[in-house]
């Protein structure tokens, strides 16, 4: 399928139209940003690694009954996806305290949460992606109560699947961010990507709190060896996929 015009360029991906109006091509970039793009850099090989990891995870989630926008991965850094209308929400699931949860609440990093938390953030760079209450979300008409219920259930189902999958990789899934779209039949579909850019992943074989970090926190916090960490996640994902 030939790619045609550029439809949209985000921080980590460029979206192109294809000759089928229902199908888009996502080109994964090596560009990395953090803190609402105040920090910028390049993670060499990230585009291919994130696209490949996301493709494997989307395929498996589909098999587990989660509808996703994934169609195919024609080259290592390109993904064909179903065209959906993205809901401007970042759905974050947390199993272990880290990142903004610790900053905003004082809960110590590494505390295993009593139950997974599902949080909704408004996907709006101009406003700095603020955390929403359910009331604000409904007032802004970002999703209906039944869609929020469905998003929450899907997010928890995806969490159970991913926790189990990353355990096979000897990795702890600390937290992650999901985005969803609505297709032409008004059905919710998991969209965007699932990768070391959008998850916190801790290496179970490393006790040191800095060495164990295998995700974008290495870039955010200048921990070094960013490319090596992404590559290690890819290798473990590929080995785990072979055993399924
Ligand atoms: P946070 O602790 O900074 O709120 O991040 C929670 C999770 O969401 C973490 O796995 C990183 C991911 N995330 C994104 O994918 N994109 C973002 O813009 C932010 C802020 C977080
Ligand atoms: N993706 C966001 C940004 O580019 C934030 C982050 O991942 O830390 O600014």
Task: Supply the key terms.
Phosphorylase Kinase, domain 1, globular, 32% helix, 5-stranded antiparallel β-sheet, binds aspartic acid, binds thymidine-5'-phosphate, D-amino Acid Aminotransferase, Chain A, domain 1, alpha+beta, 6-stranded antiparallel β-sheet, 33% strand
Please write the string of helix (H) and strand (E) elements: EEEEEHEEEEHEHHEEEHH
Using only C-alpha atoms, the radius of gyration works out to 17 Å
Task: Give the number of DSSP strands.
Answer: 13
Distance between the termini: 29 Å
CATH superfamily of the largest domain: ATP-grasp fold, B domain
Could you tell me the CATH topology label of the largest domain: D-amino Acid Aminotransferase, Chain A, domain 1
Per CATH, the class of the largest domain reads Alpha Beta
Largest sheet: number of strands, sense, barrel closure? 6 strands, antiparallel
Which structural class fits the helix and strand makeup?
alpha+beta
Task: Kindly state the percentage of residues in helix.
Answer: 25-40%
Low-confidence stretches at least 5 residues in length (pLDDT < 50)? none
Rounded average pLDDT: 97
Quickly count the domains.
Answer: 2
The second-level CATH architecture of the largest domain is 2-Layer Sandwich
> Count of DSSP helices?
6
Strand content: 25-35%
List the bound ligands.
Answer: thymidine-5'-phosphate, aspartic acid
Gross morphology is globular
Describe this entry's structure for a reader.
The protein has 244 residues and is of the alpha+beta class. The protein has 2 domains: 3-82, Phosphorylase Kinase, domain 1; 85-226, ATP-grasp fold, B domain (D-amino Acid Aminotransferase, Chain A, domain 1, 2-Layer Sandwich). It has helices spanning 46-63, 99-105, 134-139, 145-168, 217-220, 226-243; strands at 3-9, 13-18, 23-28, 31-34, 39-42, 70-75, 78-82, 85-86, 89-96, 112-122, 171-182, 188-191, 199-203. The strands form 3 sheets. Strands 8, 9, 10, 11, 12 and 13 form a 6-stranded antiparallel sheet that branches. It has a 5-stranded antiparallel sheet with strand order 1-2-3-7-6, with helices on one face. β4 (31-34) and β5 (39-42) form a beta hairpin. The protein starts with a strand and ends with a helix. The site of thymidine-5'-phosphate has 12 residues, from α2, β11 and β13.
